[in-house]
Fold:
Amino acid sequence: MQDYIIYTDGCSLGNPGPGGWGAVIIAGGNIRELSGGYRLTTNNRMELLAAIEALNAIEANATAVIYSDSRLLVDGINKNWLFSWEKKNWKKSDNKPVLNKDLWLEILKLARTRNVKFVWVEAHCGITYNERCDVLAKKAAEIAGNKIDLAYEDSKSETNLFSDAGNETSPEKVISRKIGDNINLSIRLDGNIRFSLIQKYQTVEFGKETLMELVKSMKEFDNEN
Structure:
């Protein structure tokens, strides 16, 4: 049975925003790269999905070591959070529902059919394949197109892999639109309106008042010119 060394990473440009995941699978001297992107998702969902896609790419009963810079993913397994959540009917210690249950269920299934060890590594510290996964994930996020993470955008389907709403920070509603080459606008509605302009790896966030001032300034500029 082949042994595998796997590196994974995930990202969301704006979090939430266009997201991507990347994985590097090493076995017997061969290196395989995997990646994928979604038009609107969260960083944690992409971190979890990277591990899922990598494990799905190797055969059942295989032995693998997954290196990830996601504390959530690694601690979720190594500190037995995942198995505790399962016993508690997917409730956390504060009795709140576990976020991203759909993805954790998939990880649980894959972990039980493969001999997997999860190891945390520090991000952006020069680990070659970890850095490569970061590049793959960000590129996938940039060209995510219209592929939909239904768990984040539409939580109506209970059976789909992407079925439970999974924003890791708050239950706010987020609308994302592509407004130019490599430029995305996210509007976050959580009682206040927040706008995020995402161009490549740079994100600028501002509120409604700032937007109104920008519009006012543009009108004044037009009148003066």
User: Anything to note?
Assistant: Confidence is low (pLDDT under 50) at residues 155-172. DSSP finds seven helices and nine strands in the chain.
